[in-house]
Amino acid sequence: MKRKGQHFLLSAKARTISLKQVYTMGEDKAYEMFRSLRWPETEGEAVCPRCGCCDAYDIPTRRKFQCKACGHQFSVTSGTIFAARKLAFTDLLAAIVLFVNGAKGVSALQVSRDLDVQYKTAYVLCHKLREAMAKEQADAMLKGIVEIDGAYFGGHVRPENRKEDRRDRRLAVNQTGKRQCVVVMRERGGKALPFIVRHEGDAVPIVRDRVHTLATVHADEASSWDDLHAGWDTWRINHSQAYFEDGACTNQAESYFSRLRRMEVGTHHHIAGPYLNAYAGEAAWREDHRRRSNGDQAMLVAGAAMASRQSRRWAGYWQRAA
Length: 322
Description:
By secondary structure, this protein is of the alpha+beta class. The protein has helices at 19-38, 89-101, 108-115, 119-133, 204-210, 251-268, 276-288, 294-307; strands at 56-59, 64-67, 73-74, 145-153, 180-187, 192-197, 216-220, 233-237, 244-245, 248-249, 314-315, 318-319.
């Protein structure tokens, strides 16, 4: 029997950064790393966020800069999701490493314990990182072979204690009305794009906007996807008979939902509601970069955070009022 190769996550190539390395590098090196991530075009030299001037006075005692053209004072995190930060740069980098190291995600409670910060601080920080990661999927257009599937989250109805008091939870009248459907469109060898809708069929207009007309779409036999035949070369698979047949399958989409379910059951426990889209986007990002080392993932997240504008939804130690 042919022996299977070692899984990538078990190899040394998957481990290129650790918390030990982060804290032994010191605050100065961590600060220089954030500078290079903020201003890669100038190799870490400060650029005024207000006027774009590349000449600035360095104020090393406060780790700030003053623009020579307009006099504006700014720091390396000004205007980013880390604006008005109170954590040290080593703690920010450590939080990012902790965040990417969890294959099924990491809970804010665990981050708060590992960094010795309030739960609210860790909760907001994790959501800011998810917001920055979502920028990568904002304008993506899928081509080639695209698999589409949907799964429902939330709206759990706890069964009554006694059998005679239990109701059929499959009936709409006995449901909470809080169930949400996550629909994922996943390009083979490419990106995964999740969206939150009420029912599977509601995602067809979104598919028209995000999937190229020359793409080949794979979906299951649910009637929600019958309209796909009008716009794409569509292959269907009946999961009650087979998971793969004549080249048709949605295994890549199912792999995404496997990760999202494990995040829900094993890590976060409750992801439905107003923040389901954030957790769905995180699962998609982890699927897209699952074969990259944790060091590369940390630099991708840190770079996305430094390139993102200040969050309008998450600010300070708790979320800003809507």
